[in-house]
Amino acid sequence: MSAPRLTDFVKAYDVRGLVPEQLSPQVARVIGAAFAQVIATPEGASAIVIGHDMRPSSPELARAFAEGAVAHGVDVTLIGLCSTDGLYYASGALDVPGAMFTASHNPARYNGIKLCRAGARPVGQESGLAEVRDLAQWLLDRGDLHPSIAPGRVGSITERDLLADYAAHLRGLVDLSAARPLKVVVDAGNGMAGHTVPAVLGTDGGMPGLPLEVVPLYFELDGNFPNHEANPLEPENLRDLQAAVLEHGADLGLAFDGDADRCFVVDETGAPVPPSAVTALVAEREVARAVADGTAAADIAVVHNLISSRAVPEIIAATGARPVRTRVGHSYIKQEMASENAVFGGEHSAHYYFRDFWFADTGMLAAMHVLAALGEQQRPLSQLVASYTRYVASGEINSPVADVPAATARVRDWATGQGGVTEDDLDGLTLTHEGEPLWWLNLRASNTEPLLRLNVEAADRATMERVRDAALAAIRTEGERP
């Protein structure tokens, strides 16, 4: 059987493929060897760290990756079960490159690899992943690890548990000990939050208890996801959490995805809290913390992507800090955060990034900020977040089209006819109506499919629906679908 083509499943930011048809132990082994050669060795790193999620294939794949790396002279620390932000913690704290075996929220038949440089710095197609892929393909096509290109030594493999250290680091960034007692339902979706929440919010990490009553939902680690898909972005995957919050009279609910790097919040009524509201809330807190440490507000930057709510830059600016607008995608967020030395960054997809976490994303730390903000005052969460939810959003709507430029032009023509509309092309096309009523829309083309992604936000629901429906009518003109 011919070797699989890595270009089929090495994506823009990570590796994500079917097991074992695409991602097999042999493939993991050559990717580990290539990672050692392309990322670790040129940076002078003599060691890397590897973690994995709860998928049945993850331990074997992680071990194979380690074998490839040590064959090419790099020492490996295996930290076993961890969340993706737990791997980022290990890479940052140990200052070594890292690899995380996970397919996040994808179905059980998938697995994948997220790679980072020392200090949790991202590795994507434009920052080394393409070179790793190409060298791995070369090794795979030859059927072995080609020790002739190795540096002449074989590395070692050691095992280390960093869960308690990870939990202690997060506890050191957000103090929950003085919060009022809160009841929180946590839906782990049978993913890695079932491993990390008891350590961070409970006592499994060896730390004192917090004034939190955690009601666990699907904490059993199971990569087959027997209860629901571990993707809280889909509303149907929040239904069990919403029902449990109401059943238990909880103050809020938290839902994590499979590798626990994203966190979604629901309030005491079971209503989802928009990720943009969480971004604005955490931004206020991180700016206030930086100011308390002696930094002038004008010298503080907070990053947000361009389809975050308009309320996000407004609230950041109101603190005196500087909002920095970026393209959609974690590589752009991380790049801007590093260049701006930003204290915090947030995305509409519920990825949250922190300077004090090596500019990497951690859903757990964002959740702790929400718990702290709620616990510092007496209002319910629905009232607390109301001031951060100023506008009405459509959410992202995907439309298959035969001619993306033509569909985009039709939307532009419609918007121009409304009068008073400005546009920019930072990421796709953003059209903004600053007058009354206020609205904006963004159209972005998919990089891999003939799709247009539409996001609309407006001052009121009627305006949002009017703009949304007009834009969709222009996009979906008869005869334009593929």
From TrEMBL:
Residues 396-471 form the Alpha-D-phosphohexomutase C-terminal domain. Keywords: Isomerase, Magnesium, Metal-binding, Phosphoprotein. Gene3D superfamilies: Alpha-D-Glucose-1,6-Bisphosphate, subunit A, domain 3 (3.40.120.10), Alpha-D-phosphohexomutase, C-terminal domain (3.30.310.50). This is Phosphomannomutase/phosphoglucomutase. Residues 11-126, 165-270, 282-391 form the Alpha-D-phosphohexomutase alpha/beta/alpha domain. The lineage of its organism: Bacteria, Bacillati, Actinomycetota, Actinomycetes, Micrococcales. The keyword Phosphoprotein applies. InterPro entries: A-D-PHexomutase_a/b/a-I, A-D-PHexomutase_a/b/a-I/II/III, A-D-PHexomutase_a/b/a-II, A-D-PHexomutase_a/b/a-III, A-D-PHexomutase_C, A-D-PHexomutase_C_sf, Alpha-D-phosphohexomutase_SF. One of its GO terms (molecular function) is intramolecular phosphotransferase activity. NCBIfam families: PRK09542.1 (NF007088). One of its GO terms (biological process) is carbohydrate metabolic process. Its cofactor is Mg(2+). Belongs to the phosphohexose mutase family.
